[in-house]
């Protein structure tokens, strides 16, 4: 709150000192701080002091109270008065920045946009504020899902940063634009942009932490780009670089020396947040590759780190990281046959979404999809259908839409009497018939093998094995089912293990291998028992009632129910 006024009056310095003392007390005494600042107006101060005090009051009220109307009034006065005072950029643009934040919080986005545009227009001689306001308006457009406008602004920012000689901030603008292009799936534009970014990042010589943070941003985009394409083997060198990079950052001390170029005064993320993000992309990789125990290990580490950070930091991005980690580990639990734990973690996601409407808006479709997958795992097919239908209503994301529809198709196949719905669903997946209708499992196997997609390989092997068994080709079936079982045990994938052991039992019986048939039957019995016990445990939990929730925000209270109401027959 320090003031830069020339020859300030003693009364002003005294009131400012008291206000700052009360603001920084533990706990803060906000009411007394506000009283001290309001007392400044009793002295009929000059415009500079008046504008700065309105900004200070608006900022304190916005950040520490729920009195948003009074905060808005003070910030509007600060913005209006400061525009009449020459060389008063910090107060002017900080007022515009906080006021636009407040407008967004009040869902007055149409008031925030022209305010930011005006501030951007008049801040071109102040590099730090011009860049910061461009980032802020780009973020606002991103939250509104207007990625085209956001990309345009980030492009303007990158060119401005180049003109004012800030290659560091130019890279930040370009990497942010690359992130949005990836979200839009504009892959043709992503490749040249990432190539340019890689050159800028490697050539930039400056603060070591800033340089490494740029490299982390760049490598995170590269890794997610590979993972989006399912290239889990090709991504390994990039992922290793990223993990080495975050280790380097954790050994560097924050340098207190400020950059000489004011346009360089930006940080992408605190290094503690970067650390969690690297854990997160590692979990994504482990899960896609089918190393589920490794995914669980890194999830546990990341969630522990997040719990520590959330004690001191209320940044919304931490809750977003937490939800994405839980979404991944829930899918892992369902694959490894831990449905009860998965259900409790789904309930955790619900609780996090209750605390943040924006988080719920962004993750509602994923949450209903996870509930649909859980419903399939406990054989509640009607509920699974209702959950997937709800998820489809809530998503506009093409890949998620396709994933939901294919799972809904599997529900229709399991129910056995839904042929018409199944055919119309398949028509929706491929209305233009723009890829071959005849799928070749051997091709799937070849592709998944080439990129180490272990779960896809295991599923393809066991399905091929089943087909050969039905065709009476027992030797070829055995050649498929044995490696499927080995791979499923390594993942571990409980459903594929159950399926493989059932096939091995029948195969060995058909081939006259009595001992092997008995061993396979025993394995199948063990897997069945594990699944049955977990099934009973999951359906007995009060959280099981979530399967009936298909509308509105997540239910706050979940009532207990009397034992499981579903059968495991179709799984066995």
UniProtKB/TrEMBL annotation:
List the GO cellular component terms: nucleoplasm
Q: Where in the cell is it found?
A: Nucleus, Nucleoplasm
A Pfam family annotated for this UniProt entry: Cohesin_load
Q: Coiled-coil segments, which residues?
A: none
Q: Which UniProt keywords apply?
A: Cell cycle, Cell division, Chromosome partition, Mitosis, Nucleus
Q: Which residues cross the membrane?
A: none
Q: Which InterPro entries match?
A: MAU2, TPR-like_helical_dom_sf
* Superkingdom assignment: Eukaryota
Quote the protein name from its UniProt record.
MAU2 chromatid cohesion factor homolog
């Amino acid at each position: 709150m320090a003031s830069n006024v020339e020859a300030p009056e003693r009364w002003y310095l005294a009131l400012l000192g008291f206000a700052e003392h009360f603001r920084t007390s533990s706990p803060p005494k906000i009411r007394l701080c506000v009283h001290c600042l309001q007392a400044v107006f009793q002295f009929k101060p000059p415009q500079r002091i008046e504008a700065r005090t309105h900004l200070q009051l608006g900022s304190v009220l916005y950040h520490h109270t729920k009195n948003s109307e009074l905060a808005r009034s003070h910030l509007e006065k600060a913005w209006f008065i400061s525009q009449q005072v020459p060389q008063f950029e910090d107060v002017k643009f900080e007022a515009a920045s906080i006021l636009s934040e407040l407008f967004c919080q009040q869902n007055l986005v149409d008031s925030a946009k022209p305010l930011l545009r005006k501030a951007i227009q008049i801040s071109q001689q102040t590099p730090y504020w011009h860049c910061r306001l461009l980032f802020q308006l780009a973020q606002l457009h991103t939250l509104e899902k207007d990625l085209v406008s956001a990309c345009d602004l980030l492009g303007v920012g990158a060119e401005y940063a180049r003109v004012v000689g800030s290659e560091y901030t130019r890279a930040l603008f370009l990497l942010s634009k690359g992130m949005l292009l990836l979200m839009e799936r504009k892959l043709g534009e992503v490749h040249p942009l990432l190539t340019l970014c890689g050159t800028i990042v490697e050539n930039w010589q400056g603060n070591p932490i800033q340089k490494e943070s740029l490299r982390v941003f760049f490598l995170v985009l590269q890794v997610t780009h590979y993972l989006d394409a399912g290239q889990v083997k090709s991504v390994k060198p990039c992922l290793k670089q990223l993990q080495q990079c975050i280790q380097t950052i954790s050994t560097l001390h924050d340098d207190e020396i400020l950059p000489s170029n004011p346009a360089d005064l930006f940080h992408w993320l605190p290094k503690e947040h970067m650390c969690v993000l690297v854990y997160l992309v590692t979990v994504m990789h482990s899960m896609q590759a089918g190393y589920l125990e490794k995914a669980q290990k890194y999830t546990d580490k990341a969630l522990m780190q997040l719990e520590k950070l959330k004690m001191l930091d209320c940044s919304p991005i931490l809750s977003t990281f937490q939800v994405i980690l839980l979404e991944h580990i829930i899918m892992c639990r369902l694959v490894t046959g831990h449905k009860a734990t998965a259900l409790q973690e789904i309930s955790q996601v619900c609780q996090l979404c209750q605390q943040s409407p924006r988080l719920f808006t962004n993750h509602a479709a994923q949450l209903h999809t996870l509930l649909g997958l859980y419903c399939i795992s406990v054989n509640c097919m009607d509920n699974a259908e209702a959950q997937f239908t709800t998820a489809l209503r809530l998503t506009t994301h093409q890949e998620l839409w396709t994933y939901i529809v294919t799972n809904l198709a599997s529900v229709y196949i399991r129910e056995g009497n839904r042929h018409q719905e199944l055919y119309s669903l398949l028509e929706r997946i491929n209305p233009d018939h723009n890829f071959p209708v005849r799928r070749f499992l051997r091709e799937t196997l070849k592709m998944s093998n080439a990129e180490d997609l272990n779960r896809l390989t295991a599923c393809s092997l066991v399905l091929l094995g089943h087909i050969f068994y039905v065709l009476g080709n027992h030797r070829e079936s055995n050649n498929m089912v044995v490696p499927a079982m080995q791979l499923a045990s390594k993942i571990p994938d409980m459903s594929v293990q159950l399926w493989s052991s059932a096939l091995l039992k029948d195969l060995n019986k058909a081939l006259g291998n009595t001992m092997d048939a008995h061993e396979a039957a025993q394995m199948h019995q063990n897997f069945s028992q594990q699944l049955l016990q977990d099934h009973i445990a999951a359906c007995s939990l009060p959280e099981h009632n979530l399967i009936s929730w298909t509308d509105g925000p997540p239910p706050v209270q979940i009532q207990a129910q009397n034992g499981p109401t579903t059968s495991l027959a179709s799984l066995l």
